[in-house]
Amino acid sequence: MTASDQALETLALAARAADSKGGDDLVALDVSRQIPFADVFLIVTGNSERNVIAIADEIEDVLGRAGTPTKRREGHQVGRWILLDFGDLVVHVFHQEERLYYGLERLWADCPALPVAPLLAASS
């Protein structure tokens, strides 16, 4: 099994939204073979709590307008690690320190990476 077309379209919207608010080091992982509840993880870094919140808010706004509402949100008040669940796509917006500490890329190292740069270039 691989990530669905719907998950990849949602990923593209979320990646462009994160980039528009200064999200750094975007990494997308195809987790469809490892877990039954999502196809893709998008991992993004913000440079401050305020930036982490702004990135998460923009992703929610853009996906909501596109008809993909947030199913669950965690960590918004603190702004250190915000998890946004959109069904097929789960977005993790981290503060730099938390991203290094939790190392989701290491935990999910057996999942194939999905190219993000072409998604950002497509919006230019």
Automatic annotation (TrEMBL):
Pfam families cross-referenced by the UniProt entry: RsfS (PF02410)
Biological process per Gene Ontology, one example term: negative regulation of translation
Places the protein is found: Cytoplasm
Keyword check for Repressor: yes
Main localization (coarse): cytoplasm
Classification via InterPro entries: Iojap/RsfS/C7orf30, NT_sf
Keywords tagged on the record: Cytoplasm, Repressor, Translation regulation
Family note: Belongs to the Iojap/RsfS family.
Residue ranges of the TM segments: none
Subunit organization: Interacts with ribosomal protein uL14 (rplN).
Single GO MF descriptor: ribosomal large subunit binding
GO cellular component, one term: cytoplasm
Descriptive protein name: Ribosomal silencing factor RsfS
Gene3D superfamilies tied to this protein: Beta Polymerase, domain 2
Reported function: Functions as a ribosomal silencing factor. Interacts with ribosomal protein uL14 (rplN), blocking formation of intersubunit bridge B8. Prevents association of the 30S and 50S ribosomal subunits and the formation of functional ribosomes, thus repressing translation.
SUPFAM superfamilies given in the database record: Nucleotidyltransferase
PANTHER family: IOJAP SUPERFAMILY ORTHOLOG (PTHR21043), MITOCHONDRIAL ASSEMBLY OF RIBOSOMAL LARGE SUBUNIT PROTEIN 1 (PTHR21043:SF0)
